């Protein structure tokens, strides 16, 4: 485990994000399966900015939503369960301590 919370973050991303953001046909061309693809981001830019959770699209997407097709969508979209405040806090803490060059374990769908 590279970060104090990376195993929990990997589980969170697998649970809430990989249905739509796996390598095969990812929404918004955003793949969340590896550190490299997370850093690369998608159509809207990098998903995270290391050390700057408040400026990271991933946090914005799950906390306040992003505009898509003229509508504000909080991720995960639709009737999928939204992240709990403690899950968002975990993401924020992880982004604050993430190393841009680290290479955590690849994520896989459950």
Description:
Helix 1 (6-16) packs across helix 4. 34% of the residues lie in helices and 5% in strands. Strands 1-2 form a two-stranded antiparallel sheet. The two termini are 19 Å apart. A hairpin with a 2-residue loop joins strand 1 (66-68) and strand 2 (71-73). The longest helix has 13 residues, at 85-97. It is mainly α and 110 residues long.
Alpha-beta classification: mainly alpha
Instruction: Give the count of helical stretches.
Output: 4
Uncertain regions: pLDDT < 50 for 5+ in a row? none
The count of strands amounts to 2
In short:
The protein has 110 residues and is mostly helical. 34% of the residues lie in helices and 5% in strands. The model has no long low-confidence stretch (mean pLDDT 85).
List its salient traits:
single chain, 110 residues, mainly alpha
Topology:
Layout: H1 6-16, H2 35-40, H3 57-63, E1 66-68, E2 71-73, H4 85-97
Antiparallel strand pairs: 1-2
Helix pairs in contact: 1-4
